[in-house]
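Design job #97: recover the sequence.
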C-alpha cells in the first residue's frame, strides 16, 4: 500500500469515527499558541540554563539539584502554582570532580575518555601498565592469578571503525511515514529492533557452571587481584536502531564520540566499593589493543576524583519537578505534560532530555502568555531517574494513579499525559498507543498543524520512556513522533550531547505542537477516551 492509499484509508477511518461526534478545534486559540511558540519563544533560553549552566543532570548529583532549583524558580516567575520538587528515595548520588588520562608509553597521547557514573575514584594519580587478559570464566582466571596487581585492564576486543557511509541524520522518508502509520509486524518478523538504553559495556562477566555452582564475576576477580581500573570502548556495534520500533537504522559517528553509562552501585553500602571504570573513544582504545597484540607495553597516567552524596531521610536524592497552570470550571481535572529531567554525565544532556523538559516548561508559558485559560489544570512534570528505569514517572503513577484495576482518586482526574523524549527533531505526529478512540480527536487537532509537518497518527504502542509509566495505569499516555536527526548516531547518552546539537526551529515547533495538544485536551467537555 503506498503512502497516498494508506493516508486515504486512515482518513476514512477517522472520518467514520468523527461522524459520530465532531471534534471541536479552537482555531483562534491555536493561532495565538503558534504566535507565542514560534515567534515569541523562550525555549532556547530555558535550554541554555538546563545545559550550559546546570548540566549535566545525573540524578542525585549537584547539577541535578541546581537544575531542579532553577526550574522551580523559573516556573514560579512565570506565574505557575504548586511549583516544587517532589522527592523520593533514589540512593547515593555521584558526581565527577576531576579526571585526566594520558598514555605515556610507547608515546604520549591524551586519552579521550570519561569515567562511568558511580565509578570509584583512583585515590590520587596513578601510573599503570595496561593488559588485556580476556577472562570469561574461572578456569581462565586461574591463569592470571598474581599477575594483575597495579594493572589497568582492557575488557573488550578492538572494534572495527568504518567509514561514515550509513545514515547519520534520520529524517522520515515516505516509506518510514507509511510504516509509522501501520501497526508493527509480529516480533519474529521484524528485522533488527529497538536498541537498548544503556551506556558502554563494563568488564566481561563470564557465566558460572550449572547445578548450583557459583556464578563467576570477572569484576570481583579483578578487584581481588588488585587491578587499578577497567577500560572499555562501549558498544559492540557502530549501528543502532532509529527508534520507535521502526525498521530504520543509523550509523554511529565514532570519531571521538562515545556513549557512557553506569559503572558502579548507588546502593548506600556498596557505592564506591568497586573498581574505577572508564569508557574510551574506540579509536584510542583500539590503538592500545593493537600495541598489546604486538607485545609493545602500554602505560597510562590517570587520576579520577569523584564525590558520593549519601541520601538522608529528610533529603532523598531523587525528585520530580512539578508545577500547575490552574484550570477554571474543570480545575480538579489534570492534563499532564512532561519529559525526563535527568541526564547522563558525559555532556550536558541537551537532546536527552533538556529539549523535552524545556519544551514542556514552554508549553505552560505559551498557553499563559497567549492569554488563554484552560478549563482543566495543566500540570508539568519533569521526571528524575528516567535513565535508571523510569523511576520518577513510575512513582508518580503509583502515588497518584494506581492501576486500572485498583485506581487511586487521581486516576479519574487525569485526562491524559503527553511526553517528549526523542531528541531535538520536530514533531511529525503522535503515537496513539493502540487506542483507536483518540484517532478522530487527534486527527482534527493536527489539521491546523499540517503546515508545520504534523501528519502522522501512529497506531502502535511505543515504550522505553516515561509515558509508559502513565499509560500502563489506564490513563492515556502518549509520546510524540519526532524526527530523530542525530539522536541515535551522535548525541544519545554521549559525550557530544551539548546545546550546539539542538535545532532551535525544530524545538520551537515541538513546544508549539505540544501546547496545542495540551490546550485542546484541557478544553474538551469530556476527558480523552481510554482504551
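Job complete. Output follows.
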Amino acid at each position: 500500500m503506498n503512502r497516498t492509499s494508506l493516508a486515504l484509508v486512515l482518513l476514512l477511518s477517522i472520518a467514520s469515527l468523527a461522524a459520530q461526534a465532531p471534534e471541536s478545534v479552537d482555531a483562534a486559540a491555536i493561532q495565538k499558541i503558534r504566535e507565542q511558540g514560534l515567534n515569541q519563544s523562550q525555549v532556547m533560553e530555558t535550554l541554555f540554563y538546563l545545559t550550559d549552566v546546570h548540566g549535566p543532570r545525573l540524578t542525585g548529583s549537584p547539577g541535578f539539584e541546581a537544575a531542579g532549583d532553577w526550574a522551580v524558580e523559573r516556573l514560579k516567575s512565570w506565574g505557575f502554582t504548586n511549583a516544587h520538587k517532589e522527592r523520593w528515595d533514589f540512593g547515593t548520588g555521584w558526581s565527577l570532580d576531576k579526571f585526566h588520562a594520558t598514555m605515556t608509553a610507547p608515546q604520549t597521547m591524551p586519552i579521550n575518555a570519561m569515567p562511568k557514573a558511580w565509578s570509584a575514584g583512583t585515590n590520587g594519580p596513578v601510573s599503570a601498565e595496561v593488559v588485556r587478559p580476556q577472562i570469561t570464566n574461572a578456569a581462565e582466571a586461574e591463569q592470571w592469578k598474581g599477575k594483575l596487581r597495579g594493572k589497568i585492564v582492557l575488557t573488550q576486543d578492538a572494534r572495527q571503525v568504518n567509514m561514515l557511509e550509513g545514515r547519520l541524520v534520520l529524517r522520515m522518508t515516505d516509506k518510514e511515514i507509511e510504516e509509522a502509520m501501520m501497526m508493527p509486524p509480529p516480533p519474529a518478523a521484524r528485522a533488527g529492533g529497538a536498541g537498548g538504553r544503556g551506556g558502554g559495556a563494563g568488564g566481561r562477566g563470564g557465566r558460572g557452571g550449572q547445578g548450583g555452582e557459583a556464578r563467576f564475576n570477572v569484576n570481583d576477580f579483578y578487584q581481588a587481584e588488585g587491578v587499578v581500573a577497567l577500560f572499555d570502548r562501549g558498544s559492540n556495534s557502530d549501528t543502532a536502531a532509529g527508534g520507535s520500533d521502526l525498521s530504520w537504522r543509523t550509523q554511529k559517528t565514532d570519531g571521538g564520540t562515545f556513549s557512557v553509562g553506569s559503572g558502579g552501585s548507588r546502593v548506600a553500602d556498596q557505592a564506591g566499593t568497586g573498581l574505577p571504570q572508564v569508557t574510551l573513544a574506540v579509536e584510542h582504545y583500539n590503538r592500545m589493543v593493537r600495541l598489546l597484540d604486538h607485545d609493545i607495553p602500554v602505560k597510562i597516567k590517570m587520576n579520577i576524583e569523584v564525590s558520593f552524596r549519601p541520601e538522608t531521610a529528610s533529603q532523598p536524592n531523587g525528585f520530580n519537578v512539578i508545577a500547575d497552570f490552574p484550570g477554571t470550571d474543570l480545575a480538579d481535572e489534570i492534563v499532564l505534560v512532561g519529559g525526563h529531567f535527568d541526564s547522563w554525565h558525559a555532556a550536558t544532556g541537551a537532546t536527552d532530555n533538556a529539549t523535552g523538559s524545556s519544551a514542556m516548561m514552554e508549553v505552560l508559558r505559551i498557553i499563559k502568555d497567549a492569554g488563554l485559560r484552560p478549563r482543566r489544570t495543566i500540570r508539568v512534570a519533569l521526571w528524575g531517574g528516567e535513565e535508571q528505569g523510569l523511576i520518577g514517572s513510575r512513582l508518580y503513577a503509583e502515588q497518584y494513579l494506581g492501576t486500572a484495576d485498583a485506581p487511586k482518586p487521581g486516576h479519574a482526574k487525569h485526562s491524559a499525559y503527553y511526553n517528549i523524549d526523542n531528541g531535538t527533531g520536530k514533531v511529525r505526529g503522535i503515537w496513539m498507543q493502540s487506542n483507536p478512540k483518540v484517532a478522530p480527536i487527534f486527527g482534527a487537532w493536527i489539521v491546523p498543524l499540517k503546515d508545520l509537518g504534523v501528519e502522522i497518527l501512529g497506531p502502535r504502542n511505543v515504550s522505553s520512556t516515561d509515558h509508559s509509566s502513565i499509560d500502563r495505569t489506564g490513563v492515556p499516555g502518549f509520546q510524540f513522533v519526532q524526527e530523530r536527526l542525530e539522536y541515535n548516531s551522535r548525541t544519545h547518552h554521549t559525550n557530544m550531547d551539548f546545546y550546539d546539537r539542538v535545532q532551535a526551529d525544530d524545538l520551537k515547533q515541538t513546544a508549539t505542537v505540544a501546547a496545542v495538544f495540551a490546550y485542546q485536551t484541557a478544553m474538551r467537555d469530556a476527558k480523552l477516551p481510554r482504551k
